[in-house]
Amino acid sequence: MTPILYKSDEIDFTSNGLGQLNELYSVDIHEQRNGLLTFTGSYPVTGQHYDDISEGLIILAKPSPLDDNHAFRIVNTQLDIAGHSLQIEADSITYDLTHNLVRSVTMKGNGATAMSQLQKAIVNPSIFTLYSDITTSSTSTLNYVNPMESIAGTQGSFLQYWGGEMKRENRRVAMLNRRGRDNVATFRLRKNINGLRYTVDTSNLVTKIIPMVKLTQGDTTRYVEGNTVYSKRVYSYPIEYTQSVDVTDKITINEGDTDVTIIERINAYASNWFTKSENTNKDLPDVTIEIDVLSLQDSADYADKFAKLETIGLTDTVTVYIPEYGVNVTAIVNELHYDPIGERVTSMVVGTAKVSFAEANQNALSDLQGKVTHVQEQATQAVISANGKNSNYYGRNEPSHPQEGDTWFWDDGTDSGIRVFTNGAWVDYVDTKTQERIDNIVDESTEKAKEYTDELNEKQAKLTSDLNDKVTNGEAVLKQEIADRESGDSVTLQAGKDFVTSTIKSYDTDMQSQISQVSDGIMASVSSTNLIVDSSFVNALANWTVAGDVSWQIDTGSMYEGVRVATFNSGDTVFDRKTATLTSAPIYTMNLGGTQFYATIDLYAKSFGTSAYFKAEIVQKDSSGSTTKSTPIGGSFDTGMSGWNNYTSDITLDSRTTSLYLQFTQYGGGRVYVSRPYLGSTKLPTGAYMPGTSNDNASTLKLFNDYFAFGIQSNTGALIAGINGDSSGVNIVGKKVTITGDTTFVGKNFMDGALIKNASIGTAQIADVSITNAKIASLDVNKISGNVSNFIQSNWNGKYGSTTITSDGMAVSTKDTITQFIDSGMLLKKTGQQVGGIGVQGMVGKPANYQGLTFWLDGGAEYMAWAARDTGDYSMNPVNKLSWFRTTSTPAGAYPGFNFDDDVYFDQGINVPGIAKAKLGFTTKTFNGFNYPYFGDSRMQAGLAYGSGETYLISGNNYYLLSKVIKALSGLGAVKIPSAINSDGTVKTWFNVTL
After folding, report:
1. Of 635, 619, 636, nearest to 583 (Cα)?
2. Higher pLDDT, 817 or 471
3. Which residue from 475, 519, 520 is spatially nearest to 499, judged by alpha carbons?
4. Higher-confidence residue: 119 or 422?
5. Which of the 8 DSSP states describes residue 176?
6. What is the pLDDT of residues 796-823, one digit of tens each?
7. What is the DSSP letter of 36?
């Protein structure tokens, strides 16, 4: 279908709205299983509805082969000037729920009941109905979350406790026991198929189990094993994947049972272990398949084996044959890219299907919930972000089945870092050794730059010497020729004219010497043939300008033809519809001769992201800064290359041009390398290169009848170091000017900010003096007449506007924050409101010398906190670690009073209110050969210990398996317990208890 544009408040979608977007192109709808659903596309600026498209409007499009048309709300638009198009990004209309709120909800019962309870807890009215057909029952409580987080985006979500597969609709969000179709296609995996990449993971494979139970009697623990159970696929693999299975909680063991009886019960339970629903496919490897359907169309057997993939839906299952092991596995479509205009699937990611929460029985679900909440030292935890677009993992072990863009915060006990899942592999982003590697690269690069600079300086000195010899010899020959032939024949006169208006070029050093004669003088200069300043990146990017969220960088680790390489690499950063530029120093036409120039670059565009491209161009500007002309070098590039390529372009200056520069532009993500840029009046042979100077300076000599100048000038024509003069006087210009020998100044001398060393002044009469810059080593303030305090205060306040001195103290202002030093300490204000401060304070009922340091919060402020930035971070907002909130203004996710947002350790006992002297303790207690977290009496004589899915009661030096007692009692149902006994031993009254 053709996508249709609607107003922001449309809910029925029965008309054509604002109109069909017929000119829309490069459209992609991306959906992940229980994750994101987004729309991207490009619309030309000449399109009929270009002016109508804006953030907040809705686009209706078909999201997949099997689903009804879906509404997407536009969240971002970006104008691509080069491509003359508008880049559009839109999210599923169901993302509107992320802007609503659930203050508190307890979901309890089956899926339909839980979703109904959640819908009733939504604060603002909503058009969306929440639905589920899952029959499994569970319970979860959530506070201050948005509705989408409640469904699938936080700890305790519906997805975690009830499971299911999400289906987003225009007015409904459903969690279904099964959304897709089963076994819609079958195909055989083969290597070297263009468009199909797959991985097979056997790390979780089980083909053989040894069932056992754990028996504890007093301080003695022993194990009883049942018969070994084999999978029917055990011989499909090169080794047996063996695992022990504890079935203690799965069978009944009575007091006095013999080992033979126990073994019979173990075997009765475990004999069909591989066919139990919760163990489905444990004897099959995990498979991940990335399929580019468009590329697969080039396959010879596409029509026979892969054509069905064009109409496959999200969460559909397919049967895949793995030739390495000769087994068939059932895989589910976890990710789908769909073209709604062409109405076809363009790519997908298929992974091994696992048992859903909804399919598992209640006992298995309870076990799983217990394992999720049990904190283990090496556990890997995943948290789905609120928008469902990626997952974060934490821990030592490598996560299983990550998706593109997932982040893993790893810590192996010695080192730690961050890795991002990119192109099927975990890629290091930063770790504890990153700084060490950076320091090594910087040291190496600095040494190479120094060696290269020394080499260029030697060549520059030799060139200047050779040029001086040539100019001197040329002048001598010219003078002799003029003396010999006062009037001269035309041939000789022409030869002299050609010399004084000539250019001498050296292809060894890439420098040119130019002598020009004009009507009233002679000019000479020595400059670079390559007008691009620091074209070889000798000074890295010091002479270049970079812009963009991801900057161009110099690849110090590689060279191309002996020249450094400028690199753009978006890496793991999402750079869709963004631009990064690298721009050379400007070249001013006042220093150029002629209007015809030639440009070359070397380019290796290794890869591009979606809708990304690269271009290089020579941009010309007029005196007002407006572009007069732009000439591309090689055109625009959007396809990856296998190696380096050389591109050229002829440049003709526009008559209005006063300056020009080279600019590299990368739009969208990718990896691009450029090297050896050239711009000059000489056309180089194919593949040739001449480096530009490492700065934009040139030596100059100008002799006119009323003006002279010689020295070094910049490309703007300004004299940097040298001497010039005219009828008004002589100027000496330089960053530093050194005059040796005795110097006599006649006349008046004006020195602004002079520092005079060892000056001797006998007597000075100063009636009215204005001193621009004076440094006085010692000033006797008592010799200053007038109001000295007012003099110091007024001048201080006038000089430093942000810092003022008053009779009460000092105040420092930065933007809208004021720090005021008062008699008791420091007071802080923000936007005119008094927030709080830090100061010295006594205490009521204590002596005057009883002093302490107090942090206080004033009545108008809301909270105070102790926060920290992550290691190595110096710019982001600090993250709260300990905070205190008022009851009347607690934000979502926090509670009145103190909130701890980091690990807390209690090294000493904790006192409780009242007269009790015993203290509470949090510590580790060791028994049964293991270390357990403990809470209770600080002397560790009475309390509870937790571990391995069990709870222990501690009494003195004894420990008791409390959870086993509770489990034994939990299944008894209605029981009677004696409450009074007669003298003859009979029961008088009973307690009726239901367990």
Report:
1. 619
2. 817
3. 475
4. 119
5. E
6. 565 555 777 766 678 888 767 888 888 7
7. -
Report helix, strand or coil for 129.
strand
CB 879 within 8 A of CB 856: no
Q: How much is the CA Rg of the chain, to the nearest whole Å? A: 40
Residue 729 burial (CB count, 10 A)? 7
Are 3 and 51 contacting, i.e. CB atoms less than 8 angstroms apart?
no
Cα–Cα separations (whole angstroms), residue 686 to 207, 602, 666: 64, 11, 25
The residue type found at 318 is V
At 229, the amino acid letter reads V
Q: Are 151 and 130 in contact (CB under 8 A)?
A: yes
Q: Which two tokens stand for residue 130?
A: 């929440």
For the ranges 185-189, 711-715, 987-991, the one whose mean pLDDT is highest = 987-991
Q: How far is CA 689 from CA 150, 214, 352, 535, 956, in A?
A: 62, 78, 54, 10, 86
Half-sphere exposure of 679 (CA within 13 A, CB side): 28
Amino acid symbol at 879: V
Distances (CA, A) of 360 to 134, 280, 282, 394, 865: 11, 10, 14, 26, 44
Q: What is the pLDDT of residue 646?
A: 93
AA identity, residue 333 = V
Task: Report the pLDDT averaged over residues 334-351.
Answer: 87
Closest CA to 639 of 668, 603, 600, 612: 612
CA–CA–CA angle 266, 269, 275 (5° rounding): 135
Range 83-100 average pLDDT: 92
Report the C-alpha gap between 807 and 811 in whole angstroms.
11
* The pLDDT value given to residue 368: 38
Looking at 211-324, list the stretches that DSSP marks H as alpha helix, in order from N- to C-terminal side.
259-270, 293-296, 302-305
| Mean pLDDT across 780-804 | 61
For 561-689, list the strands marked E by DSSP: 563-569, 579-583, 587-588, 596-608, 613-621, 627-637, 645-652, 659-667, 670-680
Sign of CA dihedral 672, 674, 679, 685: negative
Helix (H) or strand (E) holding 557: strand 553-560
CA distance 352 to 44: 41
Tallying the residues shown for the chain, one arrives at 995
Tokens found for residue 993: 């208890």
pLDDT in tens, 47-75: 999 999 999 999 999 999 889 999 999 99
User: Structure tokens of 566?
Assistant: 């400028």
Q: Kindly report, residue by residue over 365-400, the tens digit of the pLDDT.
A: 334 344 333 333 333 444 444 444 567 776 767 886
Residue 395's identity, in one-letter code, is G
Whole-angstrom Cα distance, residue 459 to residue 452?
11
Map residue 503 onto helix, strand or coil.
strand
